[in-house]
Automatic annotation (TrEMBL):
InterPro entries: MucB/RseB_C, MucB/RseB_C_sf, MucB/RseB_N, MucB_RseB. This is Sigma-E factor regulatory protein rseB family. PANTHER family: PTHR38782, SIGMA-E FACTOR REGULATORY PROTEIN RSEB. Keywords: Periplasm, Signal. The lineage of its organism: Bacteria, Pseudomonadati, Pseudomonadota, Betaproteobacteria, Burkholderiales. It is found in: Periplasm. It holds the Pfam family MucB_RseB_C. Belongs to the RseB family. CDD domains: RseB. It comes from Cupriavidus taiwanensis (strain DSM 17343 / BCRC 17206 / CCUG 44338 / CIP 107171 / LMG 19424 / R1). GO terms for molecular function: antisigma factor binding.
Length: 359
């Protein structure tokens, strides 16, 4: 048998190889051209507002179940989430930890029941869930676009879902950049990343698996709340307060941060109250919450106490920065998912003048 093949056969094989090389080269050139395109794809304010609004509403109004992966620095953990909404937009949610100690959070609108099985304890409190993943905005959505430019990035898939991808770039160094992946049809947020210097991902939360538009099982959540009624209950109360009346002032040092609330609240690890004590030991602090609409920070003011050993210093984990300083006989703690310089400026802005006593 002739091994070399006919001249016509050899020439045909060469043409096929040449076509393959040309096709591969064309693909490479197309990819390079796409990569080299300028990223001048900033959304108009109208389009940006529409997408932020769609993302925010989807978290509240869609029925979805899935697995969430949280990553903060080197720390990672997973949770299972179920969320249902009815025709008048009541919300029912169940969040279960999948690693570490068993924990379960049951929510009906703004009333949250946190279950601690080993202590047979239920902590009940009112919480605003509007700024927790997959919800997004803590203040009016238009405020965000005074502080960030929103760009559209190439589409990607997350948890098997086709997503539109957006980058929110801050106008200054007082806040981090944010990247968002929203499911194309519903707008449900699939992934959110906090981006630091050099494009480093400081923190992210993402669905690893999700189903959208599932039938409601809100009755199971209501039944779980009812079934925990025989456990010890601890109700966390937040008392609205005026820090000015107590001698405190905080001149907001940076543009865009709005005071959301100031309250007196309990602090510390919650345990089942001892027999005969319905509330147990309560250590209260003042908390002042600020937000720029997309991210935020809290200022805590607590009296110096032998119950809690504290010292001045700084700490960081992922995007979260902490500063502790002493003012008079009080500890000031500022915690936020913002750059360290922002936390330091807020800590420095806290001032105290003892209120005059009335005789």
């Amino acid at each position: 048998m002739h091994k070399g093949g006919s001249p016509a056969h050899v020439a045909g094989a060469q043409r096929i190889r040449a076509l393959r090389r040309s096709f591969f080269l064309a693909l490479c050139l197309s990819a390079a051209a796409a990569t080299a395109q300028p990223l001048d794809n900033t959304l108009t304010r109208r389009d940006a507002t529409a997408w932020l609004n769609k993302i925010h509403k989807a978290a509240q109004r869609e029925n979805y179940v899935g697995t969430l992966i949280y990553q903060r620095g080197s720390v990672m953990h997973a949770s299972r989430i179920q969320h249902y909404s009815d025709l008048v937009h009541n919300e029912y949610e169940r969040l279960e930890t999948l690693d570490g100690k068993p924990r379960e959070v049951l929510r009906q609108n703004d009333v949250v029941h946190s279950l601690i099985p080993e202590a047979k304890l239920v902590v009940v409190e009112k919480q605003d869930a509007k700024d927790r993943f997959p919800a997004l905005l803590a203040t009016n959505k238009n405020d965000v676009l005074d502080l960030y430019d929103m760009r559209k990035m190439p589409a990607e898939r997350v948890a098997g879902m086709e997503c539109e991808v957006f980058a929110l770039e801050p106008h200054d160094a007082a806040r981090y950049a944010v990247r968002l992946w929203a499911e194309k049809n519903s707008g449900l947020l699939m992934r959110a990343q906090t981006i630091g210097d050099g494009g480093k991902v400081l923190e992210q939360v993402s669905f690893s698996q999700v189903q959208i538009g599932v039938p409601s099982e809100k009755q199971r959540i209501l039944a779980a709340i009812k079934n925990s009624s025989s456990w010890n209950h601890y109700e966390v109360t937040y008392q609205p307060t005026s820090i000015a009346d107590e001698g405190w002032s905080i001149a907001v040092p940076l543009k865009g941060f709005q005071k959301i609330r100031e309250v007196r609240r309990p602090l510390g690890e919650l345990r089942a109250p001892p027999p005969g004590n319905a509330r147990g030991q309560v250590f209260e602090v003042l908390q002042i919450v600020y937000s720029d609409g997309l991210t935020g920070l809290s200022v805590f003011i607590e009296p110096v106490s032998e119950q809690r050993a504290r010292r001045e210093g700084v700490a960081a984990l992922g995007a979260t920065q902490v500063v502790v300083r002493r003012v008079a006989d009080f500890w000031i703690t500022v915690v936020g998912e913002v750059p360290a310089s922002t936390v330091r400026q807020f800590a420095t802005a806290v001032e105290y003048r003892p209120p005059k006593t009335v005789h």
